[in-house]
Inverse folding.
């Protein structure tokens, strides 16, 4: 139980702090509201623990054998985040409900975890930190994934709710445009630590 509590604290700190997933959830809350953003929220909440399972039960050894694969995923992820930043900055949703863009679907949000560099760093770091090679790996990885599953939904809901709350403060199209551009800039800034050496 002590280990589970420690993992939960780590999962909470990783899940509640600003990052690509949370910035995008907040932006979705502003632009599309809660109901249309629920698939996005659930996709993150299930997609990340699934990635932890996959990494913990096999992919980590693959990366040790072929380190270049991790770098390739990192480059692809950063490129995709830059593309998403551009989409957010140019989002044509408006306050009157006319929307020419769409929120992330469940599949898109779950798949995004695989190109999210912050997600890879957290997943690999968590497995390296909280597993013991002297004990069976599978139960340990399952425990980590279950803890993240329990923590991800509440943390994501906070950011989605924050976005919905902000929507009430955005009185016109210009203010929403400023918000979207600001979120795009924040998303780009969240990439910087991933680009720096040793990240």
């Amino acid at each position: 139980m002590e280990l589970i509590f420690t993992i939960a604290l780590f999962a909470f700190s990783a899940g509640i702090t600003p990052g690509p997933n949370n910035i995008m959830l907040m932006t979705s809350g502003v632009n599309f509201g809660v109901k249309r953003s629920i698939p996005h929220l659930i996709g993150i909440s299930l997609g990340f623990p699934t990635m932890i399972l996959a990494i913990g039960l096999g992919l980590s050894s693959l990366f040790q054998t072929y380190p270049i694969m991790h770098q390739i995923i990192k480059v692809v992820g950063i490129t995709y985040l830059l593309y998403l930043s551009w989409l957010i900055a140019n989002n044509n949703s408006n306050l009157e409900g006319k929307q020419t863009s769409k929120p992330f679907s469940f599949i898109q949000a779950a798949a995004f975890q695989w190109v999210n560099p912050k997600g890879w760093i957290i997943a690999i770091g968590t497995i390296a930190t909280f597993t013991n090679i002297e004990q069976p790996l599978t139960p340990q990885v399952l425990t980590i994934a279950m803890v993240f599953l329990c923590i991800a939904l509440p943390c994501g809901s906070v950011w989605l709710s924050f976005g919905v709350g902000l929507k009430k403060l955005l009185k016109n199209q210009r203010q929403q445009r400023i918000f979207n551009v600001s979120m795009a800039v924040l998303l780009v800034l969240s990439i910087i630590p991933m680009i720096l050496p040793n990240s």
Q: What stands out?
A: The first helix runs from residue 2 to 16. Residues 27 and 163 are 6 Å apart (CA to CA).
